[in-house]
Amino acid sequence: MSPSARLQEMIRVIRSARTQGEERGIIQRECADIRAQFRQGDNGVRSHSLAKLLYVHMLGYPAHFGQMECVRLIASPRYNEKRIGYLGAMMLLDEKQDASLLITNSIKNDLSHSSQYVQSLALCTLGCMGSAEMCRDLAPEIERLLRASNSYIKKKATLCAVHIIRKVPELGELFTPSARSLLSEKNHGVLHGAVVLITQLCERNPDTLAQFRKAVPELVQIMRSLVTSSYSPEHNIAGISDPFLQVRILRLLRILGHNNDSASEAMNDLLAQVATNTDSSKTAGSAVLYETVLTIMDINSESGLRVLAVNILGRFLLNNDRNIRYISMTSLQKIVQTDHNAVQRHRGTIVDCLKDQDTSVKRRALDLSLALVSAVNIRSMMKELLVFLSSCPPELRSQTASGIFNAAERYAPSKRWHIDTIMHVLTTAGGDVRDETVPNLIQLITATSELHCYTVHKLYRALLKDISQQSLVQVACWCIGEYGDLLLKGECDEIEPVEVTEDDVLDALETVLQSHMSSPATRGFALTATMKLSTRITDNVDRIRSIVSIYGSCIDLELQQRAVEYNALFKKYDHMRAAVLERMPVMDKNSPGHTNGDIGELIKESDTSKPKPAEMGFPSESASQVCDLLDLLGGPDTPGPAPASTAPTTTSSAGDLLDLLGGLEPTPVVPNLIVYEKNGLTLKLQCDRQTETDVTVTLVGSNSSLNDITNFTLQAAVPKSVQLQMKAPSDNVIPAQGLGQVTQTVLLNNPNKVSLKMRVRVSYSHQGTLCQDTVQIDSFPSDVLNCQPSFSPL
Q: What are the GAE domain coordinates in residue numbering (predicted)?
C-alpha cells in the first residue's frame, strides 16, 4: 500500500471508529508507527508520516514529538518535503517553542531561493508563527522582497511585513518607503496587502500617519477606479468590484481623515459617489456601504454627507437580514447624540424593530428608542415603550423600566403624567425595577401636594387589584400612611370618588402584612403605614394597637424591632405619638436626574433641629460582602471577615425617644472629594464618623460622557489591623450625561485607632473597552470629620 493511500486509509479507519475509546486506540497505534518511521531516517517516509501526524494533531491529540521532524524536512532540498515541513512548523511550532529558533536560518536561505514557491513557503511560515527575534533577524530580507518584480512574492512579503510590524512596531520605519510605492501596483492582491500594511503603520506611529496623508489623492483614485470599473470576472462579487479591497481602502481613509480637514475634504466627493452608486441589495454592497457610513461619521465630513450616511443606515433597518439591522442600530446609537435630528426621521422604523423576534435586535432597538426620546415626542414614544414593556423578554424589563424612568424624569410634560407613567411601570413590571425607584417616586409624590388626593386614591385601587408587585405595594402603603385622611374623605376632583371606610383601609394593609408574597421590606412599609393611620383615624385605634402588638414577637428581627418601638409609642409616649407620626416634610432631591440615591438622602435637607416623624417603612438591606483584598497593599497576613458592628444599647431610665426610634440625629458630613476622574467617570469620596472606631466611607460615581459606563465595580483594601466591610453597590451601570449615580458604602472598623490607609481599585467598561485603575488614599487624619484625606492615583 502506497504511503499516500496509507494516509487516506488511516483517515478512513479513524472516521469509522464507533466509540471514543476505539478512536484513541487507533491513534495510539498510529502514533507508535509514526515514531518508528521517524527513527528510520528515510525522508520520503518521514514526510508522509508527518502528514499523518498533522491530521492526528487536527483531531486534538498530542503531536509534539514531530517538531524536530519539521525542522529536518524544512532543510531538505526537495519541494514536497519542504512543503510538509513548513506546514508542520506552522501547526506544531510557535514563538514559545525553542525549536522555532532552529528554522530561522532555513527560512533566510529559502527567502533567497530561485523558486517563487519555495520563497512563498518561507514567507507564509514567517508571517504565521515568526517570533519577535525572528522578525528582527529577517526584516531586511522582507523589505528586499517588497521591491521584487514578482507580484506573487510581493503579496506574500506584504502580509509578512504586517506580521513583523505587529510583533516589533519599531521596525515600521523600515517598511514605510516600500509601502508607499506599492500603491502604484495594478495587482489587486498586492494592493490589498499594501493598504493593510499602511493601515498598520498609521495606527502605530503618528508621524507615519501625517506622512501617508499625502497619499489620500492616490487612494481616492484607486477607490474611484474600483467603483466605476467595468465588469471583471476575476474580482467581481455580487456586482461589486473587489469589495474586500474597497472595504480596506475605506478603513484606511477613515484613519487618514480623522480630525484632519484637508484629508477629509479630499475624500468627500468620493464618499458621496460610493454612497450613491453602490447597490445594497447584496451583502457585498451592504458591507461597502457600511464602511462608507463609518468613514463619513469619523472624518470631518459635510453635514449633507452625514445626513446621507444616516439615511443609508435607515435603509439598513428595512433589510430582511437581522445582522444588518443590528449593525445599523449599533451605528445609529453611536451618532444619535451628534446627529439627533437626522436619526429622528427614522424613529418609526426603529420603534418597529422593538417587535422583532430576535432579542439582540430588540435590545439595540430599545437603547436607540430611549436615546430618541425628547420633550417633543415624549408622549408618543412613551406609549410605544409601555406597550413594549408589557410584552418584552424578562431580561429586558429592568433596562426598559429604568430607561422609562430616566426619560420621564427629564421630559415629563406634567407632574400627574410623570406619576401615572411610573405607576404604570410599577403595575406592569414592579418586580424588575431598581431599588431606588420607591424612594424616587415617594419624593415625587411629596413634592406634588396638589396631587396627593389623586395619587393616594389611585394607589389604593392598584393595591386592591394586585399585591404581587412589591415596589408598587410599598409606595401604596407609604401614601396610605401619609395621606390616609384624604383617602377616607373620598373627595377627589381628578378621579371618580369611591367611598372608603377605615376598616377597608386597615383590611388592605393587613392583607399585605399577612400575604406570603410580601417581602420583609414591604411588611415594614405596611406596618409603619398602619401605625401612621393611628393619628389619622378615630374609631379603629384599638385595632391598630392589636395589629402592631402581634408583630412584637415576629420572627423577622427588623419588623419585630419596629413593632416594639411602636408599642412603646402607644404606652410610654402616647402624648408624643401625634407629633412623631405627623406627615413627612417635602423631600428635595440633591440634584436633578439623580436616580441612585436612597430615601435617607432625600430627607437630609429637612429640618434637623427637631425630631423627625418616623420613616415610612425600611428598605431591604443590601447583601453585604466582606472584601479580603489586602494583597493590594502588600500585607502578608489575611484577616478574617469583619464582624458586624453593633450599636451600643442605652440603659437610661428616661428612655430617650430619639434613642428608642434608632437615633434620628444626623451626623455631620464632610464635603465630597474627587478621588478619580477619567473617561468621563468621576468618583467622589465622603467620610462619616459613626463612633470612636467606626467610620463609614461612601464612594459616589457619576458619568459625564456620552455613553453609559457598564460593569462598574469597586474593590478596596486596608491595613490588616483595620476591619473592612463593603456593602453591595447600588448598580453596576452609570448612565451617561450625568443622568444617574452609583453609590457604594465601605464600613471601616479601626479598634487600634491606627492611621488609616485605603487603596481603591476601579474597574469598568467604557465604549467597549475594559478600564482598570487604582487610587491610593494615603492617609486618613485622626479626626475624619474635620480633615480631608489625601489621595494619589496609581
A: 668-781
C-alpha cell, 19: 466509540
Q: How confident is the model at residue 507 (pLDDT cuts 50, 70, 90)?
A: very high
pLDDT band with cut points at 50, 70 and 90 for residue 327: very high
Q: How far is the C-alpha of 236 from the C-alpha of 224, rounded, in Å?
A: 15
The contacts of residue 156 (CB under 8 Å, 6+ apart) are: 119, 120, 123, 124, 127, 145
Rounded Cα distance, 670 and 684, in Å? 11
Answer yes or no: are the C-beta atoms of 786 and 689 closer than 8 Å.
no
Q: In 3D, which of 533, 540, 544 has the Cα closest to residue 485?
A: 533
CA-nearest of 550, 544, 555, 552 to 520 is 555
DSSP assignment of 86-97 equals HHHHHHH--TTS
Q: Could you read off the pLDDT of 454-464 as tens digits, one per residue?
A: 899 899 999 99
Please, which residues have CB within 8 angstroms of residue 112's CB and are 6 or more apart in sequence? Answer: 119, 141
Give the largest Cα separation in the chain, rounded. Answer: 109
Measured in whole angstroms, the distance separating CA 644 from the mean position of its chain's CA atoms is: 33
Give the Å distances, CA to CA, from 55 to 58, 66, 152, 281: 5, 12, 29, 41
Phi, psi of 737 (to 5 degrees): 60, 30
Three cell numbers written together for 679: 473617561
Q: Are strands 236-237 and 790-793 parallel, antiparallel or unpaired?
A: unpaired
Q: What's the CA gap between 782 and 763, in Å, rounded?
A: 29
Task: Tell if the pTM clears 0.90, that is, is over it.
Answer: no
Give the closest residue to 463 by CA, choosing from 479, 448, 440.
Answer: 479
- Ranges assigned E (strand) in 545-667: 624-625
Q: Judge contact between 134 and 125, C-beta under 8 A.
A: no
Contact 335, 310 (CB under 8 A): yes
**CA 101, CA 433: separation in Å to the nearest integer?**
60
Residue 719, class by beta-carbon neighbours within 10 Å (0-12 exposed, 13-18 middle, 19+ buried)? middle
Bridge partners of residue 625, in order along the sequence: 726
Q: Rounded CA gap, 675 and 5, in Å?
A: 71
For the beta carbon of residue 674, count every other beta carbon within 10 angstroms.
Answer: 11
3-class SS at 772? strand
Percent above pLDDT 70 for the chain: 86
Cβ neighbour number for residue 33 with a 10 Å cutoff: 14
**Bridge partners for 776 per DSSP:** 759, 792
Crossing angle, helix 283-298 and helix 261-277, to 10 degrees? 150
Q: How far is CA 346 from the centre of its chain?
A: 26
Which residue from 556, 696, 561 is spatially nearest to 624, judged by alpha carbons? 696
**Distance between CA 657 and CA 534 in Å, rounded?**
18
How far apart CA 536 and CA 520 sit, in angstroms, is 25
Question: E strands along 48-180, which residues?
Answer: none
**Neighbour tally for 754: CB within 10 Å:** 13
- Written as nine digits, the cell of 585 is 416634610
CA separation for the pair 19, 21 (Å, rounded): 5
Contacts of 455 (CB under 8 A, 6+ apart): 419, 445, 448, 479, 483
The residue to which cell 415626542 is assigned: 377
Q: Tell me, letter by letter, the H, E, C secondary structure of 187-228.
A: CHHHHHHHHHHHHHHHHHCHHHHHHHHHHHHHHHHHHHHHHH
pLDDT in tens, 80-105: 999 999 999 999 988 777 777 888 99
Q: Tell me which residue has cell 423576534.
A: 357
- The contacts of residue 744 (CB under 8 Å, 6+ apart) are 698, 699, 701, 714, 726, 727, 728, 729, 730
